[in-house]
Amino acid sequence: TRQTVMQQERLRAFGQMASGIAHDINNTISPAALYTESLLETETGMSRQARRTLQTIQRALNDVSNTLTRLTDLYRQREPQVVSAPIDLNQLVRQTIELTNARWSAMPQQNGIVIRMVTELAHGIPSIRGLENELREVLVNLIFNAVDAMPSGGTLTLRTGIAKTGSGEGEPAGIRGVYLEVVDTGVGMDEEARRRCMEPFFTTKGDRGTGLGLVMVQGVMERHSGELEIDSAVGKGTTVRLTFTATEAAVSRPAPTAYAGTASKP
Ligand code: ADP
Ligand code: MG
């Protein structure tokens, strides 16, 4: 969609700016780090207090450098991923539900959170190609967002099925795609959040949020040539839909049509 494209361009522009700034800061702090190190090594007669102060400076410089590395990693335009393996989305969903269990079952929701897994096809869905780690991280982020959005309980549905892709220009229509939806019955997003949720560092969670979750999700989806759509209504909930191109390979192993779990402790 046009909006998705605009968001991608904005993100790219932001990424370029961020890595430019990171580069400048690195150039500024690296002599400082070198001088600090050389002082610590050569000035053997310095007081304990002075040594400790220098070590603190060294740690601080090191932290800055690590932060910059993380920031630039986040925006680095990686090569389209070639090394990828066939992935069964249903399997991925099941694994991730287990992985995140501790988080949602620990939430003090009054009514608990019910997690459902629904798949359109009882005989399994076509596999997709991708990086399992990255996709699992995407799903973890989306599940955490959904849990955060349901402070007084609700239902989280993870739905997979067949989607039509190729509606865009230059692509043949009707290619088989696979979708994965994360649907919550939470607070939803207001107009501002809806507009700005993909912006780096935009968060409505104060100190608890980083505003980088959806940025990461978007980055992974781009590398997988997938599509990300968000549909949200205040007071009703949010649906995040990820669409991937299915591989030619046949259908993945059969999956149960529904998975139900609940975080509520009766
Ligand atoms: P964070 O979770 O650290 O705030 P994200 O990038 O994951 O950062 O999300 C950005 C913002 O988008 C959130 O702060 C929230 O306002 C909004 N948001 C994301 N997912 C949902 C959701 N499922 N329901 C309601 N709001 C959401
Ligand atoms: Mg988040």
TrEMBL record:
The keyword Transmembrane applies. GO terms for molecular function: phosphorelay sensor kinase activity. It comes from the Bacteria. Keywords: Kinase, Membrane, Phosphoprotein, Transferase, Transmembrane, Transmembrane helix. The keyword Glycosyltransferase does not apply. Residues 20-248 form the Histidine kinase domain. This is histidine kinase. It comes from Terriglobus albidus. The chain holds residues 466 to 731 of 857 of the full protein.
